[in-house]
Amino acid sequence: MSSTWFWIVVVAVVVLVAVLVSGLLIARRRRISLDKAREVEAKPKRGSYTASGGIALAPGGEAESVEDPVHPVEDRPEVDGQPAVGDDAAVPRDSGQRTVRDVKLPEPAVDTVDTVAEEIDEIDPATGRLERLRGRLSKSRSVFGQSLLGLLGAGDLDEDSWQEVEDTLLVADLGAATTDQIVQRLRDELSRKAVRSSAEARAVLHEVLTAALSTDGHRAVRALPHQVDGQKQPAVVLVAGVNGTGKTTTTGKLARVLVAQGSTVVLGAADTFRAAAADQLQTWGERVGATVVRGKEGADPAAVAFDAVKRGIEDGVDAVLVDTAGRLHTKTGLMDELGKVKRVVEKQAKVDEVLLVLDATTGQNGLAQARVFAEVVDVTGIVLTKLDGTAKGGIVFQVQRELGVPVKLVGLGEGPDDLAPFEPGAFVDALLG
Ligand SMILES: Nc1nc2c(ncn2[C@@H]2O[C@H](COP(=O)(O)OP(=O)(O)OP(=O)(O)O)[C@@H](O)[C@H]2O)c(=O)[nH]1
């Protein structure tokens, strides 16, 4: 009896083990086949573009537009073709798919305008520009020079006066953190040096403000050519920013600085949303004899940028400056497009400099913009424009501190040569008057 039970138990155990093993095998095989299917799905199609790796896989600028079409100007809800709120949602996701027959083949995207300047502009030398243009900072100077020096030069300061110093710095858009740091240093230095005269107070203020503008980053604009595998490669500079900050103007002004220093330049008008922007850039190009590569209105900006760099390499120029379309930093689609412009360009040449153009008159909003741009493209330098039109020159301090990116250039007017290199000492000097 007991041996019968023994054999029943043995048979049951064997059956149980067999069932478990076969179950495991089936489950494993299923898992493998599922993974394989995913692997196949994940493999990028040839010539397509996958965002996951961050690297564009298509071989040329035009190929990109097949899978990632341009924002057609006529689909935009606004009247003048510029990006606006609701832009990304212009074509609802559930709208009818276009068939192959509906799709109009694009015309060649790019025109190149070889400008032979009949009369090339006389260009102001770039050296000493900040000094020459210091008068343009008069609005900010009234805050720093008159208000601050008035307070600090008056001798021993009581707490009310220090509060006024703090308020003055905040009104000039230095931001809370920078203001705190500067006030603390001023307090320390003024008492340590037992400052008595207004001249001494000016010297201390100069020193403290200049130190607050120091940065580890280099301020030189990387716009000179370099060698790649023994071949001359132009420097590639991308100019980005929101609408109306002064990107096109800055690109034109920078081209003039480079030409004045003996460089050859190709300008890429990758602002294809606004036809006037390309015309504007072409005018800048004509005035200094630079070739302009531009696209048809609504063309893929990445394709135009790509062709501009290609042309720059073929012509052996020293620098290619690419003016991109103004984009609202709140619009994900447009920001992605900027990332794409950079990635497409980098298929043939490294982007050496990404200049973010910020309008100094927009204050805190400019900072918010800068943070978003810095996430999409590696911003390597800031151009702060319209400093001539604001009393908030203190934004320079805040921009650098918050972004950790050096201010490289400042715009001090609408004139063609009103762009100056940013030098902390000379800038503070101009602010203090
Ligand atoms: N006062 C002053 N005006 C400037 C400065 N820089 C640019 N501007 C003016 O700002 C306006 C806009 O400049 P654009 O260069 O067209 O700006 P943008 O960023 O290319 O504009 P979008 O292409 O629309 O995005 C123009 O009227 C320029 O003359 C500056 O440093 N000071």
Automatic annotation (TrEMBL):
Part of the signal recognition particle protein translocation system, which is composed of SRP and FtsY. One of its GO terms (cellular component) is plasma membrane. The gene is ftsY. PROSITE patterns: SRP54. Its main location: membrane. GO terms for biological process: SRP-dependent cotranslational protein targeting to membrane. It is a peripheral membrane protein. Belongs to the GTP-binding SRP family. FtsY subfamily. Involved in targeting and insertion of nascent membrane proteins into the cytoplasmic membrane. Acts as a receptor for the complex formed by the signal recognition particle (SRP) and the ribosome-nascent chain (RNC). It is found in: Cell membrane; Cytoplasm. It is an enzyme of class 3 (hydrolase). HAMAP family: FtsY (MF_00920). This is Signal recognition particle receptor FtsY. Keywords: Cell membrane, Cytoplasm, GTP-binding, Hydrolase, Membrane, Nucleotide-binding, Receptor, Transmembrane, Transmembrane helix. Residues 43-101 are annotated as: Disordered. The keyword Coiled coil does not apply. Residues 406-419 form the SRP54-type proteins GTP-binding domain. GO terms for molecular function: GTP binding; GTPase activity; signal recognition particle binding. It comes from the Bacteria. InterPro entries: AAA+_ATPase (IPR003593), P-loop_NTPase (IPR027417), Signal_recog_particl_SRP54_hlx (IPR013822), SR_rcpt_FtsY (IPR004390), SRP/SRP_N (IPR036225), SRP54_GTPase_dom (IPR000897), SRP54_N_sf (IPR042101).
